[in-house]
User: Fold these one by one.
Assistant:
Number 1:
Amino acid sequence: MELGVLVRERPSIPSPEFEYEEINIPGRDGSIFRETKKVRDITINVSFTFIDHENWQERLRNVRKWLLQKKDHKLILSDNEEYFYLVKHIKINAVERKVRESGEFDVDFTCAGLQYRRDGVLEHSVAEVEYNPYYESMPTYKIIGAGKCTLTVNGKNMTANVNGHLIIDTDRMLSYRQDGKLENASVKGDYEDLHLEEGENMIRITPGFELKVTPNWRCL
């Protein structure tokens, strides 16, 4: 890469873990654990090394800037390029200067516990996303048209008033226009009802409106 930074070794990836509720029942040995559908964050530690014969400190500053100002929030491993980890936080640990020209450091990437498919962040037609072979996903719907419409997913409805374009983000539970203006008051219904279940799904939109779906496919 142009910064001259190399990964020393492939990082170990922690297994995802579901959040759970621990229930203690008087008179009963042990506890009962009730799992939820939420997956805990994971921390991926990556070891880096770099060499600079002329300006070691300037190279280090550039590396820090590259990591901390990274805007796409994706961690992609070269042996698993069809997927990415969604990065929530980056912590750069102490840099160890081995010799005058080289340095080594570790970075902790706090990520969502699920892996996301890279083609899942692209827009698709309804027919392309009705079958979900992965884990339950939180898609983004883009409705194109004018007037009042009903978006139906697996028999559950959300009504919307559309003026050209309306984006319904079920992950962030927001509705907005393409220019970013919030339109939460333009929809009525539960965002969670619009999730794509594992397996077959049925997605419908009122005739006269166009619908595009960004499925945000993910897996354990």
Number 2:
Amino acid sequence: MWAFYFLFFYLFSRSYLKLHFLLTRVDTIWKIGLSIYIILAIIKVTMFYLASGLVFINAEIFTYIDTLDYILLFFFLFISILAGIMCIRKGYKPAKIYLTAISFYVVFTFITIFQRFIGVALLPANVFTGIDELIMVLIFSVGTARQIKELEQEKINAELAREREHAKVEKAIALDNFKTNFFTNITHEFRTPLTVIMGIADLIKEQPTSWYTKGTQIIKQNGQRLMTLINQILDLSKLEAGSVPVNYIQGDVIQYLNYLVESFQSLASQKEILLLFKTDHQHLMMDFDPDKISTIVSNLIGNAIKFTPDKGKVLIQVKTKGNPPSRVEIEVSDNGPGIPENELDRIFDRFFEGTVLKNQEAGTGVGLSLTREIVHLLKGEISVKNLPEYGAAFTVSLPVTKNAVIAEVPQEINSEEQAAIKIDDQVDSQNKPTVLIVEDSKDVAAYILTLLKDQYVIACAENGTEGLRLAQNIIPDLIISDVMMPIMNGFEMTKNLKTDRRTSHIPIILLTAKADKSSRLEGLETGADAYLSKPFDKNELFIRINKLIALRDTLQNRYRDLAFIFQSENDGPNGHVKFEDAFVKDLQTHLEENISNPDFGIVDLCKFLGLSRAQLYRKFKAVTGQSIGDFIRKVRLHRARLLLSSTNLNISQIAFKVGFKNPTSFSRSFTSEFGVKPSQIRSKHPDISS
């Protein structure tokens, strides 16, 4: 019985104290002692069994066995105490509970053994019976409950740790995405002016007389744009490193702010935006750093103009607090779309791209972050809020001090004047192919226009939405489009155009700074016919255009002979009917259904397709190289030829059946189309005419 008791006690202790993990040697010694005790117990039971029979066993042997039994009992008591102490020293907290419970058991056990040895009962019998085990069980119960609670807490802590780790991973992924967007956007920001600079440099080299003055202005402007971008990124890094000095001067800050606002009037006028400057003081002398104030105000006004719709309003207000003024507040507000409430607290984070920004021209994602850092450097504060009706307002609050040396405010600042080539949006009536340029950068659009204007009629759009509308209206022969544009990007526009039967045939060349393989594949998957990276070589652009025009000519040659529309789909190239084939076959099928009606014509086909007369004419002319009127006449004549060789109707009946009002006119048109008279076709099939 005691062997089982000690066996289970060992197993409990081993599990409770994690002996196999914390004290492997003690665990091994305990196993050996337990094994000896079990063997001794087996011997003892065997001897009692034999002694009860005929076998005589010396009583001294039982005495030795009892002595050894007590020795092993002391061994178990000692090793359990030792294991508890050693686990406590290793920092295992549950061992304290274990040692406390075992201590009661050991004390009671020693008292019991001592009474047996001296043969005197110090206390009444059975006073300790079961009490030690009860106390031990109670202590272990409390300890176990506490251990369970700690395990639950550890589980909770582990879950929280996992959540924190997950949040860190999510944050790292988000930061990685932000950085990816940043480098994508900054690549676009670099490549766009580089395209203009390299293109204009080529024009100056080829035509120095006409392009030197105008071209150098454009190159200087775009070079300054690159320099500003680089300086912004470097300034942000210096600000974080705390290595940017503040160069205060004392001057009239109101005069300087008014000058900064006026420098944006040209940019605002391009969108017919009303740019206003209001102040409650005409003059205010204070310490400020002109360069840093210029960066702050330029970023805020530039963003306000970007997000304000055409014919909107941007207001810059300057107010002071205190008398005399202790702080000056500069508020830049607009009537644009505003900022979602859940993004207001992150709008100044570096690389953050808000919901509104995704629908606008891509930026570097450092502008507002840089603005905040500079404001903090000047010991100021910056905040943003949405206006009650629409729009947003950014407020910069700066302390007013007068400690610096009085100096003249610098007047040479970077103006936002556009030195771009003027874009002529008029589509003239010359018999030239029409090219639609969809590009948000006026300089790039103007450069492409300069390259193509002698050979093509040019139309221009500033974003994907405008480009889509213009393409559907004028049905150009070719579209050259940027990818990263406001409102609707080039990918979306291309997908819409290629799935619209009015514009599905138009070749599209995408020009973009996104030169990676995945972006190219995305562009081609949307249906783009060619993909060029900025800055592009003008000769490569010419080659792409010429090849696409040549493919259009090949397509027109295919449709010039309408025999294919009478073939089954499996007779076509590779057994596949192209999108344009389906368009032409739809026309042919609808015309066939009404072929006997001599009044059925262009107006009826326009109603069937849901296109205007001009759209149908341009679409059909671009696809087939012929007019829709010629197509109707050819379908009637091809059907007549089929009837002449397959029916016994006479020529006059066939003429009326295919929609001709006059048999004589029918015969004349038939002969002009096929080079033979209707009667000659009929004579080749005498079995039908008979």
